[in-house]
Amino acid sequence: MRTILVVLPILFATGKAVAQDPATAINEARTHIAARRYVDAVNALKGAMKAADQLTGEERKQALAAVHFYLAVGYSGSGDDLNAVKHIEELLHLSPNARITAPSKYEAHFVELFNSVSHRLSAPDTFDALYPGFWTSSPQTPRGVEPIPSVDTPALPILGSQDEKREWSTLMTASERQRFLEDFWKRRDPNHSSPENEFRDTFNRRVAFADQAFASQEQRGSFTDRGKVFVLLGPPTFARRRPITNRDRIWIAEAATINGTIEHWVYTREQLPVKTSKTTVMYRFVTQTGIGDGVLQRESALAMQALAGAANPNAAR
How many structural domains are present in the chain? Predict the structure, then answer.
């Protein structure tokens, strides 16, 4: 069984120059973590992700796993469990057997968080079981996929507020639209002190996957109901598809034959951009003759509120 603490020495024993940036960043982050300077640890690793992604083969996988691990430690220590969980999930999909072999080196809260996510992802009803491939793609926009070139397709329909959409429709020149684009993404940037915009990178990566996983002949994948929920909230904790039964609370015409399926996507409280006392929020998607393909059942006000908040998490705080 390979563990994180075993992987790291193997990874950086090669001495290749291209691996020095991630190695240096990780060593700096470990020093900060030992001194409980968690925000400094996160900042030390911000540029390491892209450098690690430039590696190839097993070395790339190990470098990315290591960066995700120490980012998770840093975010957890600084009180940001949402980002900590995200990086633990990325780590465990790169290295499913990763374990913390020396838990006494880390805060008890982080160890508990890590073990909780590890247990959850070992369950059979996961998003990856229904739609494989997202976790094995690059942490940023996948190679060969162009970044979204303009705000109106699909960023503005999915993320834009009514005021932003109205403003966009009034812009006449390329320079006006360029300034709008810069401000649009800056408003959603979680960390203005870093050159990267993690929100935009995550959005582009999710759009690229949604366009492949949920596309139909009539509609772009990221514009479908499942695509929009995925782009806004990311992969759910729990996902299952099953046949519709007479017990399901779905309106179907009396004469219609029940021949469809229903998908349940469940998100935990830590995955949501809005505060809630509920531990989970569920989205149901129905595929049924006479209804459509993957149609979201808008039956929970909290679920809809979470989607609205995810469009600009800085405004939702």
Answer: 2
